[in-house]
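Hi Y.,

Following your request, here is the sequence exactly as I used it, all 149 residues.
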Amino acid sequence: MSQIIQQVSADLKDAMRAKDKERTGALRMLRAAFIEAQKSGRGEVTDDDAVQILRRLYKQREDAAQTYDAGGRPELAEGERAEMVIIEGYLPKLADEATTLTWVKAAIAETGAADPKQIGRVMGAVMKAHKGEVDGKLARSLIAAELGG
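Below is the corresponding structure, written out as tokens. Let me know if you'd prefer a different format.
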């Protein structure tokens, strides 16, 4: 079993003992997502799988918070942001902008890209070399800036 899943389970028990309803609810949602992934035929969920699931759930919460804000429901948006903070606690830290820019420049040199039409090729090289370490949106914007797109 993945270390992340074990940590979520242990934290869930602690949150239940502390009667922390918001944290308990968020951790149950995480555990349910891990169990669903396990039952979907993937077999054992690895740490890489768990990180992928956490990133997907984080993105869903982010989108929901923006939708609630746009719809004039700030109290619901705040609940989504609280869950985002909990999820963020289990995600590995992503590289900062300076590090990402270094990787982007290396990928541009490696691929020989010089045209904004080649953003996809550079993006693929960055994501392959630094999977799980780089924020895709940040990398894409830096690549576009470097290639003049």
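The two ends are 43 Å apart (CA to CA).

Thanks again,
Q.
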